[in-house]
Amino acid sequence: MSGPLQGIRVLDMSRILAGPWAGQVFADFGADVIKVESRAGDDTRRWGPPWVSDGGDAAYFTCANRGKRSITVDFRTEEGQAIIKRLASRSDVLIENYKVGGLAKYGLDYESLKTINPKLVYCSVTGFGQTGPKAKQAGYDAMIQASGGLMSITGPSDDESDAGPQKVGVAVADLMTGMYAVAAIQAALIERVNSGEGQYIDLALLDTQVSWLANQSANYLVGGVVPKREGTAHPNICPYQAIACADGYFMLAVGNDGQFASLCQVLGRADLAHHSSYTTNADRVAHRHELIPLIESLTKQKTRDEWLTQLSAVGVPVGPINTIDQVFDDEQLKHREMVIEQLRDDGETIRTVANPVKFSRSKLEYQMAPPVTGSSTNGVLSELGFSAEEIQRFKAKSVI
Prior knowledge:
Shape: elongated
Structural class: alpha/beta
Number of domains: 2
Largest sheet: 6 strands, parallel
CATH superfamily of the largest domain: Crotonobetainyl-coa:carnitine coa-transferase, domain 1
Number of strands: 11
Strand content: 5-15%
Order of helices and strands: EHEHEHEHEHHEHHEEHHHHEHHEEHH
Number of helices: 16
Strand order of the largest sheet: 3-2-1-4-5-6
Oligomer: single chain
């Protein structure tokens, strides 16, 4: 047994990040993922530097396209549409992120394709969804982080800096939408077992962004409090933030009163755990502007590593604030084999971050590196029953 989704075919017609991220998870889980690209390739192949090699693909492309077979098809042509329809007729899933209605004029929308494959699970990813006043607007991650509220709670507070709102350092709205797509598609596949029918999934970046505001949205919807930027601090827990020490900072994440008592003991101020202003988490949140400077007056007396050792020993959650190179030098990540190396068709060795899921029986096998543009076109078309002569004709007409 290999990946748990072995036997599932995914037709990945998406570009950039949200859709391709979902497609890569399916590939990691054992599905046969066929990535449909224009002859120029996915936009992210050109989002560099850095590059895989001189004149090659951008590193960006490699983060979301491992395990896929790439084919190039111009579906603006009748022949290209016929190729996609034949693929769709033999696929379980189709993922696309074109503008609302963008594929309908080519007969590649859900209503058209379900007539040739009623079992198809068809997932559309857009910025704002298929309905509503903004449905036809384009949506990129940064603008969704902004309009979805995330930037209003990200960055240092106004009394600490004039930097203003900031976006998160990776495209989290895209990534979370990709993960919701994975969950939704698998749910539809499970439902299909009983109904025998596929279905359409309408997934919007904005909806996703708002849905995972989590406790911050609850703070507003339940408590009527408009969240604000807190820097590294947590709006509902204290002390839970970056703490200054003798040689920099470390992350302190005290989640309950017992951990706070242990922190105070290590700091040499056991009395603070019984102080009326700090006894409970609610007390500490209310008096955070007094408590944090007090804690830092003590933590600045020792180095980061000293505090990490002493606090970890008594069960207080702490961690270093690592740079990316330090992350990949971490012994825990090395033990968990979170970096894999793969040889691509063009001879380039590509390193990517492994899927974090560890199944007990369904071992994940990373059989294919992020593909060269169109490297599987001939093979896939042959599998679909197109003859060598037909494939050559498609090439001559720039269909593939």
